[in-house]
Amino acid sequence: MNLDTLRAFCLSLPHVGEKMQWGDHILFTIGGKMFCISTVEPTSPTKMSFKCTPDAFHELVERPDVIPTPYMARNYSVSLTEWDAIPAPELRTLISDSYNLVASKLPKKIRIQLGLANPSTPPTAKPSSKARA
How far is CA 84 from CA 2, 39, 90, 101, 107, in A? Predict the structure, then answer.
């Protein structure tokens, strides 16, 4: 994968926004929240970063050229120091997973606006903290 194929893939996902930030970074967002970031600077020490599950995070950082994202590792974000650190098919799956992780955490109002939640579905009942007889 490279920046062009990453960009094409991310923008193919529903409701994805793109913006330049911090001078040379491209942010890919859903509902205004970032799920993937890359740099346009070819000499940057990291090529791209994305969010993942805790299990995936621990497995991925064991691989060569995959590191915890500086300042974001506590949120289970990994960075690739080389574009080919993860094979493209697997990387597309991981980016899709990142998109879904971030989308699932959006406020319900935004998910409904984006068509990611059904407005007629009643909220899930939370179990009562009171002891039942």
Answer: 8, 15, 11, 23, 34
Element (H, E) at 16: strand 16-21
Is 33 within 8 Å of 44 (Cβ atoms)?
no
- Could you tell me the domains of the chain? 3-109 (3.90.1150.30)
Pairwise CA distance, residues 46 & 6, whole Å = 14
d(CA 60, CA 78): 8
Could you give the residue ranges of the DSSP H alpha helices within 13-132? 54-60, 88-104, 108-113
Instruction: For residue 78, list its beta bridge partners.
Output: 50, 68
Nearest by Cα to 123 from 31, 101, 111, 30: 111
Check: pTM over 0.85? Answer yes or no.
no
pLDDT tens digits, 27-82: 999 999 999 999 888 888 899 999 999 999 999 999 999 999 987 877 899 999 99
